[in-house]
Amino acid sequence: MNNWYFFGKKIEKLSDYLEGNLDRSKESRIEGDLAAKANQQRQLKQAQILVQNLHQLPRVQPSESFDTVLRARLRKEAMQQSTWISPFWGWENWRVPAFAAAAAVILAIGFYAGTRTAGAGGRYSAMATKSNLPSPATAAFSPQTAAQPVNVYVLERVFDSESMGSRVSGFQGTDAERATADRPDSIDRPLLRPLESDLTINQAGVSVQF
Amino acid sequence: MGLQTRENNSAINSREMPSDEELIKRFQDGDLYAFDLIVKRYKNQLMNFSYRFLGNMEEAEDVVQETFLRLYRKKHAYRQIAKFSTWIYTIASNLAKTELRKRKRRKLVSITDLGYDEKEYEIEDSGADTERGADRALKERYIQQAIEELSPRFRQVVILRDIQELSYEEVGKIIKAPLGTVKSRLNRARLKLQDKLETIMDRENQRKD
Questions:
Q1: CA triplet A161, A164, A166: central angle to 5 degrees?
Q2: Contact A193 B32 (CB under 8 A)
Q3: In angstroms, what separates the C-alpha of A58 from chain B's closest C-alpha?
Q4: Interface confidence (ipTM) of the complex
Q5: Is residue A203 a contact partner of residue A131, using CB atoms and an 8 Å limit?
Q6: Span B133-177, pLDDT tens digits
Q7: CATH topology of domain B14-109
Q8: Do A58 and B73 touch (CB under 8 A)?
């Protein structure tokens, strides 16, 4: 093993030389040293070849099931986080009644909003289809929101040939909301969104007429 | 000569894409979509890093999954003073090292673990010259094996710099060492690899001459 690399400042200089970071005079000095030492020159060539080979190693990618597995693990993680309070509140016992009560409240609010909006001329129609945005159901059912058209969503994902991905189309909302939803690097099947959307979004595309 | 450091994704796409730091900030503020984008941006490079470090696809994938789970759980641990890429690489590095220690404890290291599994690679089909393709695959196998024979600290630095092509500064932050240490450790790691791969390197050297 050559010790030349190991001692003195040359050890750092060698890295810089290999990567072409030195000015011409310093390169010449190193090349002069190397010329005097044929063995080291051979090793330097080897080092260059090694670095090239390392650069050219094929890029390994995750398996096709990576996202699915991660999604499942995130879901489990979220469920664990959400059930953290259960020993304190006896959540297991109260879960079914709580969901029933929540559903009743939502229906009551929806009914109230519907009658109010119908009274105002039935201006708005909302259809949530494959929505990936947070809580559109809340927006659709809230009486305050129903009076403001900016939160009514008509969504679908379309293929965008420029970004080679999908984007949200047909969005009716504020500019800020659209900027959030319609990103060029949008993902076809979000990892985290289903965690939220299970309860808040009509997955199959449900029309709600006001 | 000159090896160019690969530019960061966020730098390349700065006009259209949010930077890593913007994404993690959004995620910290509750934008779950930002998490998806971080995963999309980093899963391939972390997988490559973990695989080169561990030499096993399943373990490597598990490390990457765990890295993202840590990110999900501890998103608020990230502070804007650090570059996001170095932060996430540090998590992945630590997990990979832990995995290595676990493996040693389990005494599962065997020559087959260190070997090369052809199913895990897609070898480029060079058409008429299949012999050359097989030659290349064999060379890659030897290189991977040589990397795995390095001690973890040498392995880490050579993968981060020469395979992942991170800058010296980034490597220094990940391994928590000054620039001089990074360079000297890298040279030592390269020398060890050269020793292990002497035959291959000599053959290529002669071919080039």
A1: 90
A2: yes
A3: 8
A4: 0.78
A5: no
A6: 788 888 899 999 999 999 999 999 999 999 999 999 999 999 999
A7: Rna Polymerase Sigma Factor; Chain: A (1.10.1740)
A8: no
